[in-house]
Design brief:
With 272 residues, this protein is an alpha+beta fold. The protein contains eight helices and ten strands. Bound molecules: adenosine-5'-diphosphate (ADP) and magnesium ion. InterPro entries: HipA_2.
């Protein structure tokens, strides 16, 4: 089970991406980035966050802790922006929280170096979950205490938006040419050899069990939430077996320039 926490103070919206999550303090004295159930992206974005995030964590990638976040819109009444006010009012009850990493920096491929083995694991993982949201324009990775952390998996598992065509959609190539880590010489086939055997039916059952029933209920074409969990599991198991054969990588960049000295020193100081 994911831990349950309750929001006690709404701090501020985060406007960088599309879904406008909020920074909210909770009754366990923690601070969380809350992905709201009332956001336009819908509950499937929350399902994707849980399945992808918890799968990545179990494969050894760094993902901030995810919690079931109970949000009462009353605590957000001080929010002056009317659109955000509407979002908060539409999100009473169960939402998804992610541990807030204080002082983290957005990953910049021109400034931070990434070990090719780690880049390989992340690119393979993104191919597995069909993540189109980790480009150099929008990396959705944070650097915290000098380590790379993965956030924002709401747009992954894209085939779940139409289960009827999910098999065909899932069999398509995964284009990693725009991936934020493509300049670090990823070798996803090597990562597949290490990670794919770990994506067992048991692991997928464990991960999909973490998705709250209410985000899976009434899915057209399925009986129970467990049937939907099974469909996620089967599809991911099939992808784990051969997705590395369908990854398009960017051509190797030979003109890679190191970042200027002043920038490197500044970043290292900030991350010390
Ligand atoms: N766990 C976290 N700790 C610190 N900052 C975060 C965290 N999660 C997200 N953020 C910040 O909030 C921004 C938006 O969050 P994100 O999950 O990418 O949602 P979206 O792109 O849908 O708006 C991120 O780009 C990042 O700057
Ligand atoms: Mg984002």
């Amino acid at each position: 089970m994911l831990r349950d926490v309750t929001g006690i103070r709404y701090v501020t919206p985060l406007r960088e991406g599309g879904s406008v999550p909020g920074v909210v303090e909770a009754d366990d004295l923690g601070t969380y980035v809350v992905k709201f159930s009332g956001a336009a992206q819908g509950r499937k974005a929350l399902v994707a966050e849980v399945i992808a995030g918890e799968l990545g964590r179990r494969l050894g990638l760094r993902v901030p802790e995810l919690v079931r976040f109970d949000f009462d819109p009353v605590i957000g009444l001080g929010e002056p922006d009317e659109e955000i006010q509407d979002l908060l009012r539409a999100s009473g009850g169960l939402n998804l929280g992610m541990d807030f990493l204080p002082g983290s920096l957005g990953f910049d491929p021109l400034v931070f170096g990434v070990d090719p083995a780690e880049a390989s694991r992340i690119v393979w993982f993104d191919a597995l979950i069909g993540n189109v949201d980790r480009s150099w324009r929008n990396p959705n990775m944070l650097v915290w205490h000098r380590n790379l952390w993965l956030i924002d998996h709401g747009a992954s598992l894209i085939w779940h938006h139409n289960w009827k065509t999910a098999q065909t959609a899932s069999a398509k190539a995964y284009d990693a040419s725009d991936h934020a880590l493509s300049r670090f010489s990823p070798r996803p086939a090597a990562a597949a050899a290490e990670l794919a055997p770990q994506v067992t039916a048991e692991l997928l059952a464990e991960v999909t069990a973490l998705v709250p029933d209410e985000w899976l209920a009434d899915e057209p074409g399925f009986g129970t939430p467990d049937d939907v969990r099974g469909a996620y599991g089967e599809l991911l198991a099939a992808r784990a077996a051969d997705v590395h054969e369908r990854i398009t990588l960017a051509p190797v960049q030979r003109d890679r320039q190191p970042p200027p000295e002043w920038l490197r020193t500044w970043v290292e100081g900030k991350n010390a």
